[in-house]
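Newbie here. two chains, one complex. Structure please?
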Amino acid sequence: MTNAVVVESLHKAYGTVRAVNGVTFTVEHGEIFALLGRNGAGKTTTMEILEGFRTRDGGRAEVLGLDPGDPATKRRLSERIGLVLQDIAVEPYLTVRETIARDAGYYSAPRDIDEVIGLVDLVGHEKKKVRTLSGGQKRRLDLALGIIGDPDLLFLDEPTTGFDPNARRGAWRLVRNLRDAGMAILLTTHYMEEAQALADRVAVIAAGRIVAEGTPDALGGRNTAQTRIRFELPPACAVTDLPVAAVPGDDGLVTVESAEPTEMLHQLTGWALGRGAVLARLTVDRPSLEDIYLHLTGDDRSAPERTLERSAP
Amino acid sequence: MTVAVPGAGHRAPRRGVGLFWHQIRYEQLTFWRNPQSAFFTFVFPVLVISIFGGLFGDVKDSSFYYGGDALQYYVSTIIAMSVLGSCYSQLAIVLATRRQNGILKRVRATPLPASVYFVGLLAHCVLVSFVDVLLIIVVGRFYGLSLPASSQWLPIVVSLALGATAYCALGAAVASVIKNADAAPAVVQFVLFPLVIISGTMVPIHGAIGTISSVLPVKPLNDALLTAFTGSGSGFRWHDYGTLLVWGAVSAVVAIRRFRWDPRPE
């Protein structure tokens, strides 16, 4: 079976600005694929080329086996894709149910209207005019319009921007359920937690290029990066007194990096207990997705201690 | 509800009368739900004809009113103005606003064909015009308007149909060249107001200005309707129909070539 989305060395320039500069990735059926990047990195332009809103200057783009730039197959393709754009665009005076019913009528095989209202958690609001809804409710209505046509592929452009944490978790649950039911989902986000919590695979995009791709856990060598153990030096101790090699930092903490954290911790805590000392503010962690992201997008100057070069084996 | 297996099952797009009807129905719902738009669309022409009827309702046949009485004159021109408002102004503002807030882009992403979307809008403009025309004639009757002879109804319908077509095309063309929807009402009125004045909608215009305005889009409909309402001549004003058709055709070309769905085009 073909992939849901195939993009190969995609190019798009606005004047002299190369918004998309050789982007390549694929989205498989039934997976959530996230394009992670800062504003202006090229996420939305890539998305809009795939949605058929923009033409491409070069490269290959295939959506459900069709060329999104081909007007001859536009209607056939729009039957099978759904999208949620960045801006909320709904008529203010129709009710929730009318808005969904109107769009349902555009598709040859739409989902059941009440089922969709339930999916996006707008039960009880069906008869409310759209203008009286909160921002989050309007966004969920937008999502309802994205899935009413029962698409095989859903585009979500920054779907949870402006959501409170609860609403965001609810939206993530819904997106996962859609994926589990077989839908392929391509989303853009600039939230690290969103990519981490939601995506099966992530591509980090910066200055129009994919700079890393992988599962959220393995992105940028995160899974093989060394574990960091950080703690406060016990009183009257020097770094050289420690049983392991450690680096002091500006914040009064010392950092130990290790590929064998279990053994290393055992040594450290054994040493401390033997001296009757306490390792205050002890933490054990690995580079977060955010560290990786900041490094990949060249914005990690504010966190010099956390560069990948140091933690890489 | 079964989950579609990707790529399985060919879905034939919806076509035909049902889809047209669906779109017209929701376009109507969108309009009638908005109390302001529904109110002002109908109140303004009724108000104007009421005032003019009260002021000039007694003025009998005169050469100032091209041989008809004042009421026949104003019923004709206010009908033309209401068609202008329902088709040109309304369509230009609705399209510019919907583009700006992304509704057009959203529609573009559904399988709804652009033609069906526009038929829904045009049907709406025509329906509103029709209601306006009825209201104006009813108010005119109240002031003692004598209805045209039955032979004149066909030219009236032809004039209205051509006027509505030309003005819808003009509205779509203006919407296509307006960049910013916030400016749309101002731009629309800026074009409309002088045009209405020099076309004799408020006061009959004789002489050179009338000659100029007779090749602009408003006066031809005024004159075509007036001829039919006063029943002078055959009732058909072929050169006015021609002028409206040319304006409609040119506007349609501009609209089709320049129309954008996306608020931020490439």
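Moderator note: Chain B touches chain A at residues 1, 3-7, 11-14, 19, 22-23, 26, 29-30, 33-34, 101-103, 105-106, 108-113, 262, 266 (CB under 8 Å). The two ends of chain B are 39 Å apart (CA to CA). Thread marked as resolved.
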